[in-house]
Specification:
With about 210 residues, the chain is an alpha/beta fold. Helix content is about 45%, strand content about 15%. It has one domain: Beta-carbonic Anhydrase, Chain A. Helix 5 (about 110-120) packs across helix 6 (about 130-145) and helix 6 (about 130-145) crosses helix 7.
Amino acid sequence: MTDASLLTPADAFELLLAGNQRFVAGEPEHPNQDAERRAQTAPGQRPFAVLFGCSDSRLAAEIIFDRGLGDLFVVRTAGHVAGPEVLGSIEYGVSVLDCPLVVVLGHDSCGAVAATRAALADGVGTTGYVRDVIERVTPSVLAARAAGLTSDDDIIDEHIRHTVDLLLDRSRVLAEQVDAGRTAVVGLSYRLADGSARLVTTRGLPQPEAVPAL
């Protein structure tokens, strides 16, 4: 079993990237998905990363990063919008499970971002709790607009950066873990067509400019 306590944030990030590269190449190893792994993880879990991503059905974390049971502590919401339950889940992952890495995973053609852009453009609102999702995505879209960003990729990237900043601003637990060098937060953008996860932003990785490009 991968022991998260033995991994640095950079180690965990490299482990995650390696799995995505296998997935993109069509050469997945499907690690930790057998009966032996099931038995190993039954007494407890030691995931090496918290994966906070969009709920989109095409973003199955263990598949696109070629991981298995006990590897990822996954939290997902539409548009990766973060409320108290999400923040609590992420704090559990880093403070109780000692995950050295938190990943915010967005993707192109995000329905939540598209719905928010449409609502801002035509003023047509939505009903029910979908409206809450749109309201939480709105600051990202407005920030992108203020910066003159118009392409889908640029707006998605802005939303990923905004989510990373929000997590660190609202969670003192996470911010302290990052400041202490025990945890890093990275933002990735997933490409639906080719399966690759592109680096958008990092907080807490040593020399982020030296991290291999995806």
